[in-house]
Design brief:
Number of strands: 8
Largest sheet: 4 strands, parallel
Shape: globular
Distance between the termini: 86 Å
Order of helices and strands: EHEHHHEHHEHHHEHHEHHHHEHEHH
Strand content: 5-15%
Helix content: 40-55%
Length: 493
């Protein structure tokens, strides 16, 4: 008996990739289409995009401020995005898709028409250690997967949508835009500092919230004026007086410090479970999160890189390149700190107990050097380690929280790794590391509540023993030039 041989028919795949895939392309936004296109944007949290909208208002560019991130954004981000990404990517890309689908439903426009009439503008997208600059492509991937083929995206730190012929582009990341974006971020930081102070100490929280809403409108109106350079300080002066007049409790509450990954620390919305608002509503004071501080850190980091480049340059041309970069960082730092100090002088935050001090980044780097080298860039770098050591040495806070997205590589290496050494050195530091995913708020906030309970107990013990609380955990910031000169010199000692 002979067996019949079975043959298996192998079918060729329907799509065979014959060329190297170079990613999704995005067409430039040209001047001829300037009046036809509406810019969609939101930046980390509500106030930053709300204030920056003044720029588009003055430029007569049609825009949609997409506002705060909400939990629903994570669902859309996971639905159309790649697996196992961090929730900042899901929040930001999901917010874009949620708003595109909303436009489609409300306007009746086809997806193709929406792609022609709208463009998404965002920041970031070059998170080096964990995604190696892949995020710009992820925005395009999510849009295409949702049916918005060839949808256009503009990102500050990416070359998406840019061509050598930039003269014909409708929108440019020019000096004016960068300065006004910086102003919006600084204003948002100051109002955030005011909010956490007033929520903690105001006798009537409804009165405080009404004052904050009024302040937002006053700032936006001043920023929309072509004379904003003079009108913003005048508005801040009135706002400071208004905040100072709000009745406040005369006591020191337990003080909590929050740090961590950029988005998980500074979102101030569903992206980090409204963490600082939760802390103040639970009867504690929290040190505000500062986008300005993070921007100055990026400048400091690039200053270190420039000093290193000058030292090891192979030829005069490379030296010239790094000196140009160094000058750029010094100028940027000087402009940012000058505007920040000018606005603080007008607002007078100390009159209503707001904390707006900036930390000295070089001193922080020196403090953390033995445990985390300052030139290991990525995420928050050495900041969290240095902040923990500084605050523990000064006994300046009653609780220290590190917040990061689920699976964030640079933050995990710090808060779950190096911090173990810091806690061994300072076991009295009331430390909590949390991983945000966008949808586990009950679990996370219950853990935060336990830290706050310990913080209240520690604060009560200090009060009973008569020890004075540090009024402000500050490493005084030096002049921008001094910091720039110090950065780099110490690195190569």
């Amino acid at each position: 008996m002979t067996e019949k041989k079975q043959t298996v028919e192998v079918k060729a795949p329907k799509i065979v990739q014959t060329e190297q895939w170079h990613g999704y392309a995005t067409k430039p936004w040209l001047k001829k289409d300037r009046k036809k296109v509406t810019v969609m944007f939101n930046f980390l949290e509500r106030r930053k995009s709300y204030y920056l909208a003044a720029y588009f208002h003055r430029k007569k560019i049609k825009f949609i401020d997409m506002g705060d991130h909400v939990k629903e954004d994570v669902t859309y981000g996971k639905l159309y995005g790649n697996r196992m990404e961090c929730n900042p990517m899901y929040f930001t890309s999901g917010s874009m898709i949620r708003n595109l689908l909303k436009i489609e439903k409300e306007t009746g426009l086809s997806k193709k028409e929406i792609c022609n009439r709208y463009i998404f503008l965002c920041g970031g997208g070059q998170c080096g250690p964990c995604r190696y600059g892949m995020y710009p492509q992820e925005y395009l991937k999510v849009a295409n997967e949702a049916g918005f083929k060839d949808f256009r995206v503009l990102i500050f730190s990416s070359d998406l949508g840019r061509t050598p012929d930039s003269k014909n582009h409708a929108f440019k990341f020019d000096l004016q835009f960068r300065i006004e974006m910086g102003i919006a971020l600084i204003l948002a930081d100051l109002m955030h500092a005011a909010e956490v102070a007033l929520r903690a100490y105001a006798l009537n929280k409804a009165e405080a919230e009404a004052a904050l809403d009024k302040a937002d409108r006053m700032i936006r109106k001043a920023f929309e004026s072509r004379l904003y350079w003079w009108k913003i300080p005048a508005a801040l002066k009135k706002i400071g007086q208004m905040f100072a007049a709000i009745p406040r409790r005369d006591e020191q509450l337990p003080l909590i410090y929050v740090t961590g990954e950029f988005f998980a620390n500074l979102a101030h919305n569903d992206g980090n479970y409204h963490l600082r608002r939760f802390i103040t509503d639970e009867g504690c004071e929290v040190i505000p999160g500062s986008f300005t501080q993070r921007t100055l850190y990026d400048n400091w980091r690039r200053t270190v890189e420039a000093n290193r480049g000058i030292r090891y340059a192979k030829d005069p041309e490379e030296i010239k390149f790094w000196k140009k970069s160094l000058k750029k960082q010094r100028t940027s730092t000087k402009v940012i700190t000058s505007i920040y100090n000018k606005y603080c002088d007008a607002l007078q935050p100390a009159s209503f107990r707001a904390r707006t001090e900036l930390l000295n980044l070089q001193e922080l780097a020196d403090l953390a050097r033995k445990h985390y080298h300052p030139e290991i860039f990525g995420g928050e770098g050495n900041l969290e380690i240095a902040e923990a050591i500084h605050l523990a040495q000064e006994d300046a806070v009653d609780g220290f929280i590190s917040s990061k997205p689920f699976g964030c590589m640079p933050s995990s290496g710090v808060s779950d790794g190096v911090q173990a050494k810091v806690l061994a050195m300072f076991p009295e530091l009331n430390f909590l590391s949390i991983e945000t995913s966008g949808d586990n708020d009950v679990s996370i906030l219950s853990r935060v509540s336990m830290l706050l309970l310990k913080a209240k107990q520690r604060h009560a013990q200090k009060k009973e023993s008569g020890s004075q609380h540090q009024e402000a955990p500050v490493l005084a910031v030096e002049s921008p030039e001094a910091v720039s000169d110090a950065a780099g010199k110490e690195q190569f000692a």
